[in-house]
Amino acid sequence: MNRSIRLAAAKTSTILCAVAAITSLLLSGGIAVAQVKPSPAVVQAGSTESSVHLDRAAEFRRLRPDVNSPIPDLKITKATYYRWLEFSRHFEYARSPANHGQYGPRHFLPVLVHFVHTRDPASATACLTMLRSYDMWLRKQVADEGWHYHFCQEPAYIAVYQQVLSRAGRLSDADKAMLRDLYLFMARNIHAWATPETFWRGPMHRAQGEGVLKGLAAGLYPDVPESAEWGRYAARVYDDWWQFRDLAPNDSNYFLAALQPLAIRAMLRNDDAFFTDPGMKPLWDRLVDEMAPDGSLPPYGAHWGWNQGAGVRIAVLEAVAAKTRDGRYRFAAHRLMNYLIYQRLQYRQNHMLIGPDTTEPLSLAYLWTDDSVKPVAPDSGSRILTRRETIRVPSPVADQKKGATAVFGATADIDPRPDRGHIDCCMLVTRETKPSKLVLRSGWDRGDFFVLVDLFPRHDPLNPLGILGINRWGATLACTTNAKGHSRENRIVVERLDPPPRRVQVVPETTIEAFADAPMATYVSARVTNYDETTATAGRRFLFVKNRFLLVRDDIHLPADGRYRVTSVFNTQKAERIPGAAAAITWLDAPQMLGSPLLNPPVNLLVYFMPTAGCELNIVDRSLTDESTKPVPLQLRYATEAASNGAERQQLRTAMLLRPQAPTDRFPQGLPGVGPDAAGVEVLCDTPESLAVLLRHGSEEEIAVLNPGAVSLTLRGTATRAAAAYFRLVDGRVVDQWAHQN
Known about the structure:
The termini are far apart. Strand 2 (427-441) and strand 3 (450-454) form a beta hairpin. Helix 9 packs antiparallel against helix 10. 32% of the residues lie in helices and 25% in strands. The strands form six sheets. It has an eight-stranded antiparallel sheet with strand order 7-8-9-10-19-16-13-12, with no helix packed on it. The protein has a five-stranded antiparallel sheet with strand order 1-2-3-4-5. Strands 20-21-22-25-26 form a five-stranded antiparallel sheet, with no helix packed on it. The longest helix has 25 residues, at 121-145. It contains 20 helices and 26 strands. By secondary structure, the protein is an alpha+beta fold.
């Protein structure tokens, strides 16, 4: 790297110099990146023109014309990861190695990489000084609190320092003794929950972190008295997830927190089976399939915001690619990295984003990357993802252990002592496989239309049939907020308005009734019983016309007693009502991560609710009563109320059209009031058996059909009995068509 650029990066804090530095560091051709410019306050009523739309339309026209996306497509190599570490300024930590306390093992991973890359002895010395400082912090922590709770990254990271510096011949006898004392002290005093209990069990991040620490300690120092006990415990807690090849959390946060130390353990021990075992392929494929084609990560469950965990996912995918020689995993890692490069200036404004969420795990990506593996694009079709069932065991310790023994089998060997063998978060996985996510994918081009839908009927967030993320032209069009328990994210919400005579414990189940994928469209029918903690049944059908739109139809069967409110909800940051329709133009100015705004291309999403008797559309700011929803505050609610007469279940239905569009196309038919509807949408048929919708855009018409009753329909001169169909007409003539028969 040029010395003048290095000095500029070190001395300059202005945005302009930051742009110049990273351009020379990361972007060989140079890519302009617009800064986040939040729109004015949301417009609730329709308008023909407003400055916000004029500004966004001008910005949209500046998107790169080849892919209609500002996300770069740079070649990613080991050197790219190194340049990100330079850009992050973590190398500067080496100037004060004794001042990082509890954060030292995380902060200095890039410094360790700098040593590997340059063989600069000063970097190795700085790492060892940091480790001595961390040792002092750890001992003070134990003296003050009685224990420490660094169960996750730190133990695994310290083992990486030990291995890398040892192989490089940079450890003196005194250094080896220091590292031995430090690691054994960590293993002897770990209390992962910062409570008296130890030796936690289960497929969760605290138990697995403690197991990795004690297992590595037993392997590194087999002569210590505790080695045999630690080794047995590590093997048993590892098997708590390995026999199922899955982890318990259904989220974007804790899942990766558990996976990262396990991956480091496998790399340190040359445990190739961790990566190559056929039973691990569904988990590795999920890491690829859940990502949008632009390289971003729609979050779900407990999370900190849009694109969380990209650094860990990149590192793990590079390791999987290196071990399996499967280029699909490198392709995914490189898409993720390109999206990080696009967001680079936003990330550097937040120490958590530029630190633990990216730079520190990207140090592992540098260490694990094998540039000889050629990236290969994954399959571009839609798919149903599955995962192991997650269950909770009762909180009394005796019941926890009994439940865990039933799941793990006779070899579980759960410690009977009251302060050991507790089940981390009371969560386990079973051998039963459940639907996890629905991936609606148009392809892997960076501007392709992509939708991620939750199907999982267990654990946080209990949001089956809810839409988790939408992307088009590199823009985030739907994003969930951090949620535990039940989550009301872009789905039907069923609420009982009168108190039930008695509370009934119900368990939801998801059934996939139909799935068909073709190059033009995807059709899916899914059903959830015991929906929203009631005995209601919710069915949702998806017609996904690739790179065009998504039509969703919901059928709700309410219990035979009680009063209910049924609401179709869609959450967003900004919305503008469309006159004459139960519809709105929505958009996200800036999806958030840890409270920091991220870049987002100026793309709109039409949200159109099919007219339903008794339903009314309202747009509310839900953040006024729930602060956790501030990143995505507005909620479109299309609601009705119903009362069953106690004789039979009542059926309600509603439907929603979601169409990404440029801000220049706010009203596709022109100005409000022109054409059959201001949104360019006309309902041709809406009965219990079938729904047919016409979309107009200039001389082009599109017809979308959901026809589970298989009734005979004639639409614009075209007849069909298909369960799902799509026709595109130009000047009244069919030019494209697709159909799926039951």
